[in-house]
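hey can u check if this looks right to u? its 103 residues, i copy pasted from the old doc so theres a chance i mangled smth
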Amino acid sequence: MAIKLALLQSGDQIIADVTEVLSGDKAVAYLFKKPQKLSYNAPISFIEQDTGGEASVEVTLSNWITVADDDEIPVTINQVVALVNPIQDVVNMYNQKTNAGSN
Protein backbone atom coordinates (compact mmCIF):
# COMPACT_ATOMS: atom_id res chain seq x y z
CA MET A 1 0.00 0.00 0.00
CA ALA A 2 1.15 3.48 -0.82
CA ILE A 3 -0.22 6.99 -0.67
CA LYS A 4 -0.76 8.06 -4.29
CA LEU A 5 -2.38 10.95 -6.12
CA ALA A 6 -4.68 9.78 -8.90
CA LEU A 7 -5.85 11.93 -11.78
CA LEU A 8 -9.19 10.53 -12.92
CA GLN A 9 -10.88 10.83 -16.31
CA SER A 10 -13.41 13.17 -14.66
CA GLY A 11 -10.56 15.56 -13.84
CA ASP A 12 -10.77 14.87 -10.11
CA GLN A 13 -7.48 14.53 -8.25
CA ILE A 14 -7.81 11.93 -5.51
CA ILE A 15 -5.26 11.16 -2.83
CA ALA A 16 -5.61 7.77 -1.16
CA ASP A 17 -3.83 4.71 0.10
CA VAL A 18 -3.88 2.78 -3.19
CA THR A 19 -3.54 -0.93 -3.93
CA GLU A 20 -4.09 -2.85 -7.15
CA VAL A 21 -7.02 -5.25 -7.48
CA LEU A 22 -5.95 -8.28 -9.49
CA SER A 23 -7.88 -10.78 -11.56
CA GLY A 24 -5.42 -13.58 -12.03
CA ASP A 25 -2.18 -11.77 -12.83
CA LYS A 26 -3.84 -8.73 -14.44
CA ALA A 27 -4.68 -5.48 -12.61
CA VAL A 28 -8.35 -4.64 -13.19
CA ALA A 29 -8.92 -1.88 -10.63
CA TYR A 30 -7.39 0.18 -7.88
CA LEU A 31 -8.69 0.11 -4.33
CA PHE A 32 -8.70 3.62 -2.87
CA LYS A 33 -8.58 3.52 0.94
CA LYS A 34 -9.78 6.72 2.67
CA PRO A 35 -9.92 8.71 -0.60
CA GLN A 36 -9.81 12.49 -0.38
CA LYS A 37 -10.45 14.93 -3.22
CA LEU A 38 -7.73 17.53 -3.66
CA SER A 39 -8.98 21.03 -4.51
CA TYR A 40 -6.98 24.17 -5.23
CA ASN A 41 -8.03 27.27 -3.28
CA ALA A 42 -6.14 29.75 -5.46
CA PRO A 43 -5.11 29.87 -9.09
CA ILE A 44 -1.79 28.24 -9.82
CA SER A 45 0.77 30.65 -11.20
CA PHE A 46 3.89 29.43 -12.89
CA ILE A 47 7.27 30.98 -12.15
CA GLU A 48 10.10 30.83 -14.63
CA GLN A 49 12.85 28.44 -13.63
CA ASP A 50 15.64 30.96 -14.06
CA THR A 51 14.16 33.28 -11.41
CA GLY A 52 14.80 30.74 -8.67
CA GLY A 53 11.50 31.63 -6.97
CA GLU A 54 9.12 29.10 -5.51
CA ALA A 55 5.39 29.01 -6.07
CA SER A 56 2.99 28.15 -3.28
CA VAL A 57 -0.39 26.60 -3.82
CA GLU A 58 -3.09 26.30 -1.19
CA VAL A 59 -5.00 23.01 -1.30
CA THR A 60 -7.93 21.51 0.55
CA LEU A 61 -8.77 17.86 1.10
CA SER A 62 -12.39 16.78 1.32
CA ASN A 63 -14.21 13.46 1.28
CA TRP A 64 -14.30 12.27 -2.31
CA ILE A 65 -17.83 10.86 -2.17
CA THR A 66 -19.41 13.01 0.50
CA VAL A 67 -22.28 10.79 1.65
CA ALA A 68 -20.51 7.43 1.27
CA ASP A 69 -20.03 5.34 4.40
CA ASP A 70 -17.25 3.27 2.80
CA ASP A 71 -13.57 3.74 3.61
CA GLU A 72 -12.48 1.64 0.60
CA ILE A 73 -13.70 2.37 -2.92
CA PRO A 74 -12.71 0.34 -6.00
CA VAL A 75 -11.98 2.32 -9.16
CA THR A 76 -11.57 0.60 -12.52
CA ILE A 77 -8.19 0.95 -14.20
CA ASN A 78 -9.65 2.74 -17.24
CA GLN A 79 -10.90 5.63 -15.05
CA VAL A 80 -7.39 6.47 -13.87
CA VAL A 81 -5.41 8.70 -16.23
CA ALA A 82 -2.28 8.96 -14.05
CA LEU A 83 -1.09 7.71 -10.68
CA VAL A 84 1.76 9.71 -9.12
CA ASN A 85 3.56 10.29 -5.84
CA PRO A 86 2.23 13.44 -4.16
CA ILE A 87 4.59 15.96 -2.58
CA GLN A 88 5.39 15.30 1.08
CA ASP A 89 3.38 18.27 2.37
CA VAL A 90 0.23 16.85 0.78
CA VAL A 91 1.00 13.35 2.16
CA ASN A 92 1.37 14.87 5.64
CA MET A 93 -1.92 16.73 5.24
CA TYR A 94 -3.64 13.51 4.10
CA ASN A 95 -2.21 11.49 6.99
CA GLN A 96 -3.30 14.13 9.49
CA LYS A 97 -6.83 14.35 8.08
CA THR A 98 -7.39 10.58 7.81
CA ASN A 99 -5.22 9.61 10.77
CA ALA A 100 -3.50 7.21 8.36
CA GLY A 101 -0.21 7.66 10.15
CA SER A 102 -1.63 6.17 13.36
CA ASN A 103 -3.02 2.95 11.83
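The longest strand covers residues 26-40.
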